[in-house]
């Protein structure tokens, strides 16, 4: 950490040396949570550069979901909302709350960084250190930004597939209250409410939610339903001492309980997951606002357990906990109105414990592990000629176990024709050290090597008819080396299948090179007043480049997927929407012998604005009652109708 702070200080000194030649310029805010979500403006992007930037200056591929878009989707689960955007797919072992994998451009779940208000949600005790998105509900969220492609310079070396930043609501008026309630199929109910306000000195908000459903069988042919309940709380408080200094604290808490089935039939087991996210920080500006700074501390705590009530003497079948602590500094310095720098230092400490009690060993010793990572980063952004913005950055990390490494990233955005045409291109590197579970769990392997990645993309966006239509096309490619996979032990004399003479089901190993490439197409048109038609299509050729599965498609990654929706706002205040999602066929195993068929789902939505305070809404999910699977032999929901009321005071 000392080396990180010295490097950051040295970079800051270089910036100050050039201050005498800078114009009178304010730096963008160094607060990644930002205040841009509440106003619903989609033209500003925060996550790409960790400062608010006009979208035409961002070289990365990014999608912004504003509060209006989130409410119009009527989605309950975050992953279902994200799947409506380009390049994003997900799979889960049943209904909400079950184990969920989120994939961006064919990357693994652990290669995507998920954030709430800028705080990473990775769970060190999960199988590969990624975040299980199954418990993420649309709660008190005002904005989501989805970055596709490697974003390692600013967000850490694991940000290989992309970054999802979820921003909770931040009041802008003296007092505001919101209440949402809905219910429907499968005895489902969802209630969420929040209140808060903003004054010259204090901005605050607290919110809570409760979700419950009887669900459906997680096993495709199961006879019993698998339900889910979730309770959540969130809060934020910011105190402004002066125009230059403010302090804040933010927290999100959730507790979920989900029933699940085994890989071959019904089960009485259920799981509990408790998650806590806390952030506290101090923001201060120097040099009349040209140098904005943020010093913060972030903490995440995830506790999980599985219970089998049919095993009364040893009901617990799994117990795990993962904790992450991160101290950080970030600065943003404006040389001129077109030339700025973002730089910072981070020190992260993670630990995990896990065990699997059984009737043979009811109280096994916890497998534990811990790791520390110190890093510094710097990024320069400049509009070198009118409309052409170049961004370049570097990140240096020092890992307790795997030593130091340096990553680079560069992008360009060129806005032409008064911003109606935007050309984009980016390149980024990734480096993922093995996770604690991969190293120290009962399936661990201490001889693992780090994973390495290179990622490119390039695209064009064009607006037509005075902004009434737009279209974009993006090509992307990612190459990976030393990817870690679970190797099953099925006999033989492999010493890693019986370390110390104790047999085990398998272990983690560096077994794969992979390559993913494809195209994303996005379109939107407003042909007549009140009608908006949007669509996206993604082709992803994600395949193994090594071993027996060389040339085969990666498991559970559709080559083809797309979304299409048409929304019409009637003169009477009624909005109706037809939305369709297509997911192409996938394979359930590495050799591509187990096929999961393609499917198309159609949803119908309607919302009616009664007045400025109340809105009623309803939807029919899977309107044609499509029988489909996302994971072979696991259940999916049939047709379901839901109605609700939204109130804003």
From TrEMBL:
Motif (TonB C-terminal box): 632-649
Name by which UniProt lists this protein: TonB-dependent receptor
Broad class of the protein's primary localization: membrane
InterPro entries found in the cross-reference section: Beta-barrel_TonB, Beta-barrel_TonB_sf, Plug_dom, Plug_dom_sf, TonB-dep_rcpt-like, TonB_rcpt_CS
One Pfam entry name: TonB_dep_Rec_b-barrel
Stretches assigned to the TonB-dependent receptor-like beta-barrel domain: 220-622
Subcellular locations according to the entry: Cell outer membrane
Domain of life: Bacteria
Residue ranges constituting the TonB-dependent receptor plug domain according to the UniProt record: 56-163
Keyword Membrane among UniProt keywords: yes
Family to which the UniProt record says this protein belongs: Belongs to the TonB-dependent receptor family.
Keywords of this entry: Cell outer membrane, Ion transport, Membrane, Receptor, Signal, TonB box, Transmembrane, Transmembrane beta strand, Transport
UniProt keyword Disulfide bond, yes or no: no
Membrane disposition: Multi-pass membrane protein
Signal peptide: 1-22
